[in-house]
Design goal:
The protein has about 280 residues and is of the alpha/beta class. Helices cover about 35% and strands about 25% of the residues.
């Protein structure tokens, strides 16, 4: 996950024009005019404020629909008649804003759990992170267990500060698995292209996004692939503050989420995103 400067966006659903997202303050007059013209009033209690971070393709102020996971969340709330305002921040601030209710934030995402701070409750799952290995097409690894990786002395690229799986991180800690850390996923993929490492731990969707969009990895489109054997496929959640408002909104959100085909939404989003770069 990467950090970003603070940015806010508002997403609303109007029957005549569909869903639209704006920077608050830039189109307030226009928004009011649209509601008045349609005979609707702006109800503040139907707006939900969420905090998140820059972690493309799941969440990003620079992507269509603000990322695949953001699209799922906005649609689930829209199904229940809510507008959504998003605030993009560094991860620690993302969680803290929800804890303190800064700028009206009631929840944060995406969390593999909701125990980063006390007094949060998890929604139903909003997606998952298929974690595995990027590898060279001309030098795929063969493994069934983590011990296989240790026995083969595979040089594995990891990212400073990232949690992988408990078993993997434990074996790295005792030196059984040879981990070579970098600052981010992009650097790991560059090392893989230069054969400085054998594989890189990475989320499958992040891998697809980076290879498709990062110009420094252009050659990787024909040289790298994602290994079919996963380390894990951890679900993640929208984490609501555990108070009366949070509990109520969680119930509404979960109800709206039932009508969202999460797997199909993510699959179609990733296909469209990568096709745009071809």
């Amino acid at each position: 996950m990467t950090e970003a400067r603070k940015q806010q966006f508002r997403c609303t659903h109007l029957p005549s024009i569909g869903r639209r997202c704006f920077r608050p303050g830039h189109v307030l007059i226009g928004m009011l005019a649209l509601f008045v013209a349609s005979g609707k009033s702006v109800a503040a209690d139907r707006e939900v404020v969420l905090s998140t971070l820059e972690w493309p393709p799941f969440a990003s102020s620079q992507l269509a629909d603000f990322g695949a996971t953001s699209k799922i969340i906005i649609q689930a709330f829209a199904n229940q008649g809510y507008d959504v305002r998003l605030s993009f921040n560094p991860w620690a601030e993302t969680v803290d804003m929800a804890r303190k209710g800064v700028d009206g934030v009631i929840a944060y995402y995406p969390g593999y759990h909701c125990r980063h701070r006390e007094n949060f409750i998890a929604s139903d799952a909003i997606g998952s992170s298929p974690l595995g290995f990027a590898e060279r097409i001309d030098a795929p690894i063969e493994w069934q267990t983590l011990d296989d990786l240790g026995e083969q002395a595979v040089k594995i690229g990891t990212v400073f500060g990232y949690t992988n799986t408990d078993e993997f991180d434990k074996k790295v800690g005792i030196g059984w698995i040879r981990a070579i850390p970098s600052d981010n996923d992009t650097e790991n993929l560059k090392k893989l292209l230069r054969r400085r490492i054998d594989v890189a731990v990475i989320d499958q969707h992040v891998f697809r996004y980076l290879v498709a969009t990062d110009g420094s990895l252009k050659e990787g489109k024909g040289l790298l692939q994602f290994d079919e054997h996963l380390l894990s496929d951890a679900r993640f959640y929208l984490c609501f503050r555990d108070d009366a408002d949070g509990v109520s909104l969680k119930q509404d959100f979960n109800a709206g989420l039932k009508s969202v085909d999460i797997e199909r939404t993510i699959s179609e989003y990733m296909d469209e995103l990568t096709e745009l770069q071809q």
